[in-house]
Design brief:
Blueprint lengths: L17 H11 L19 E4 L1 H4 L5 H6 L3 E4 L5 E3 L2 H16 L2
Antiparallel strand pairs: 1-2, 2-3
The protein binds zinc ion (ZN).
């Protein structure tokens, strides 16, 4: 695959663990300053935009409706994101990745 036409950069990933693989790619290509977490959809990679709670209220589960006020929506597929429990785990991952680049 690394010899395919149009591929300008590549490296073999040694780890089987996705987070370590991301760290290896960030180090190999010096991409730490380009990290922009929580700006892309996990489903389709579309850009996320801020959306008002009122606009998507009908799509929220009752407890989400109750406990969260800030939301982002994918401009491509409409997936909705908020700073729930999964977000906290991702924040920790990003913090570790940034820390390993220093
Ligand atoms: Zn999407």
């Amino acid at each position: 695959m690394l010899h395919a036409r149009g591929v300008t950069h590549g490296c073999h990933l040694h780890s089987q663990h996705p987070t370590e693989q991301v760290g290896q790619v960030l180090r190999r290509f010096d991409l730490y300053r380009n990290i922009q977490p929580f700006t892309r959809c996990l489903t389709c990679n579309g850009c996320l935009e801020d959306v008002s709670k009122a606009e998507i209220l009908h799509r929220l589960e009752p407890k989400t409706r109750l406990y969260y006020d800030a939301f982002r929506r994918c401009v491509e597929c409409g997936q909705i994101y908020w700073k729930g429990i999964h977000f906290t785990g991702r924040e920790e991952q990003v913090r570790k990745l940034r820390g390993s680049g220093e």
